[in-house]
Amino acid sequence: MPKSPRKADHAGTSSNNRLESIVDAAALMFHTKGYAATSTQDIANEVGLLKGSIYYYINSKEDLLFRIIEESHEGALRAISTVSHLDVSPLAQSYALVNTHVKVFHDDRVKHSVFFREFRSLSDDRKEIIRGAGHAYSLFLRSILVEGQELGQVDPGLNTRMATSGIVGMMNSMSFWYQEGGSWTPEEIGSQFGEQVVLGLASEECIVSSGGRKSLIKQIRGELS
Predict the structure, then answer these.
(1) CATH code of the domain occupying 62-224
(2) What's this model's pTM, rounded to 2 decimal places?
(3) Is the C-alpha dihedral spanning 53, 7, 135, 172 positive or negative?
(4) Which helix (H) or strand (E) holds 207?
(5) Is residue 48 within 8 Å of 3, Cβ to Cβ?
(6) Which fold would CATH assign to domain 13-61?
(7) Which of 22, 113, 123, 130 is most buried, judged by most C-beta within 10 A?
(8) How far apart are the C-alpha atoms of 177 and 25, rounded to whole Å?
(9) Domain range annotation of the chain
(10) Distance (Å, rounded) from C-alpha 84 to C-alpha 216?
């Protein structure tokens, strides 16, 4: 298996900060130029290092891509942790997960975009590591939907595996169309995506007992406030 980037030595925090600067520079260059078109020399130039010096911090350009993608996934896993601790209904959890996902993407959108655009450039071993983390995210979302069906909130005829894939795909698509300062703010996107997901999942009985679609959304927002 390829080695991971070297950790900072006892020279202190400055070494770790330098590595983070290299990772951030690489993420921006992979995002703007593409992974294949970016060389380690380009990255070294960007952070003011000689090409040979950059290998004190990494073993290969792929180390940087792997670290960027790992950090992207860590954000997704933090979203799971946040939502899993909410004492709310399954529909409210699904709404919260969508909103949290949009915020996580926006806050570190360059690295998330590199993940979705350049994942194919990883070695097979490293692809499997990342797929494992992605599987955990999908399992968590699907568990929310299954619980919702058991409680009568989610449409009992819904294929939860397919629904999970659809929701994850919708959220991940942001890496291809979202623009900072564009027509929609992250808050607007999170709100609309959350409504679309909830109303697509909710059983007819749940919608009726809540007093209609608008009342259901209002109720869920009340749970999360």
Answers:
(1) 1.10.357.10
(2) 0.83
(3) negative
(4) helix 204-210
(5) no
(6) Arc Repressor Mutant, subunit A (1.10.10)
(7) 22
(8) 22
(9) 13-61, 62-224
(10) 21
